[in-house]
Write a structure and sequence with these properties.
The chain is mainly beta and about 120 residues long. It is about 0% helix and about 45% strand. It starts with about 20 loop residues before the first strand and ends in an 11-residue tail after the last strand.
């Protein structure tokens, strides 16, 4: 994979549970690889809170993989159950929010950009 930095390593490591948590529309996320030059994606360990907000992204696709807990996900007004090892592909423009006490991996493609979070 090309990089902007000559002789830069072609890999990156992150210990997700050691990263600082930041508030997000879903609850709290620990974001890895967001600042890696030319990274094709980032990876977030996300804890869903009960008051998650419906939102969408104009340019970013997300993949959710539920690690712990049970709940639901709202996708363009439809509700689906979530449990461990459920995977969800969320394309740009899809209004979404997860509901319940959940821990999931979120893989934004391309890497997460906070300017691409939109609310109705």
């Amino acid at each position: 994979m090309p990089t902007d930095v000559p002789d830069a390593p072609r890999y990156a490591l992150a210990q997700l549970d050691s990263l600082p948590g930041v508030a997000c529309p879903c609850g709290e996320a620990r974001r890895a690889f967001r600042d890696v030059p030319n990274a094709p994606a980032s990876v977030h360990l996300t804890d869903i809170h009960a008051d998650s907000r419906t939102h969408y992204h104009r340019g970013m696709t997300e993949i959710y993989v539920v690690l712990e807990g049970e709940g639901t996900i709202e996708l363009d007004g439809r509700v689906f159950p979530l449990r461990p090892l459920t995977a969800v592909l969320i394309r740009p423009g899809c209004r979404h929010r997860a509901v319940g006490r959940l821990r999931l991996l979120n893989i934004p493609i391309p890497a997460f950009d906070p300017a691409d979070e939109w609310f109705d």
